[in-house]
Write a structure and sequence with these properties.
CATH architecture: Sandwich
Shape: globular
Structural class: mainly beta
Strand order of the largest sheet: 1-11-10-3-8-7-6
Number of strands: 13
Order of helices and strands: EEHEEEEEEEHEEEEH
Number of domains: 1
Radius of gyration: 16 Å
Number of helices: 3
CATH topology: Lipoxygenase-1
């Protein structure tokens, strides 16, 4: 069992696992009981440079066509889970820290609700959201952040970020919601949307 984080807290992954080279970011959630359409949540990683914007276009990894890998193959999306049913991770993103280009200072981990505006959905219909970091060498969980707040208008969530600091890898739990979905996150991180 890894370190349990609260919103805003961080952990030095390099100190928790010396020689850390590959991690799996696991994301999970459950749908609250509703009468409406089922929720389809999607994980996306934004590969961000020193200026706070994506280091190149498209600069993100997720379910979108053509975006299953990024960062010269160092970041890989594990596939789209359309229901979120079952225990454990619903979607995953693998990061090879040793192969991550030096121009990527952080990998921002987000979750969005697919077609949220059209279906009139928001994170108020989601329970038990979490993000966790697992050392791929040995499968030990290093840390976990359980999102405990209720969000009634938000359709996108920054769960956390993996980032470089003084030659070490760290993770920060963020838990910040946005009401403008994936498009809003793309705008914030400088992704050119056609």
């Amino acid at each position: 069992m890894g370190i349990s984080l609260s919103k805003g807290q961080g952990v030095n992954l390099s100190k928790e696992a010396p020689n850390l080279s590959r991690i799996m970011v696991g994301l999970g959630w459950d749908e609250r009981q509703t009468d409406g359409a089922s929720y389809d949540l999607d994980a996306t990683a934004f590969l961000v440079g020193q200026d706070g914007k994506v280091y190149e276009q498209p600069g993100l990894v997720g379910y979108m066509q053509g975006c299953n890998t990024g960062g010269n193959g160092s970041v890989e999306y594990g596939g789209d889970n359309r229901t979120g049913e079952g225990e454990g991770d619903d979607e995953t993103i693998d990061i090879d820290l040793n192969k991550l280009p030096a121009s990527i200072q952080k990998v921002v981990i987000t979750v969005t609700i697919h077609d949220a505006d059209k279906l009139n959905q928001n994170f108020g219909g989601i329970d038990n959201s979490f993000v966790r970091i697992v050392n791929k060498d040995g499968e030990a969980e290093l840390c976990k952040f359980d999102l405990r707040e209720d969000f009634d208008i938000e359709t996108a969530m920054i769960m956390g970020e993996v980032y470089r600091h003084n030659g070490e890898w760290k993770f920060r739990a963020i838990g910040q919601g946005f009401a403008n979905g994936l498009q809003g996150l793309c705008g914030m991180f400088g992704v050119e949307v056609s």
